[in-house]
Amino acid sequence: MSLDYTFSIIKPDAFNAGKAGKIIAHLEAQGFTLKAARVMQLTKKQAEEFYAVHRGRPFYGELVEFMSSAPCMPFVLKKGSAVSALRDAIGATDPAEAAAGTVRKLFAESKGRNAIHASDSDENAVRESRFFFAEADVI
Questions:
Q1: Are 75 and 8 in contact (CB under 8 A)?
Q2: For residue range 50-80, what is the model confidence (pLDDT) as tens digits?
Q3: Residues noted as catalytic
Q4: pTM of this prediction?
């Protein structure tokens, strides 16, 4: 994957509330192109492995439970400087602190149910994408 790709997940709160299409449309309107997507429900083991970087933090157990509680939508996006562009587009973790027009300001319920995950570095975008998609899956 090049620097023009990044990874994201529409989390169970937003997916179950029927916001996935609106979130994707919002990101496409900002110049992102959808390159891979799937709907799935993470097992507890998958959620533990995916979020292993947070193991030991106070929110880890709650995050694992939440992310394995219902379907979610992992996806890959393309845009120039994709990681930073997506981080800007989704806004602060706490929707109360997110800028107007960002995904979290528009679609998130709370800091814990914040609608979307986005990779925080180019390296993590590759690692996280490969967790869900084979290279051939990203078109």
A1: yes
A2: 999 999 999 999 999 999 999 999 999 999 9
A3: 117
A4: 0.94
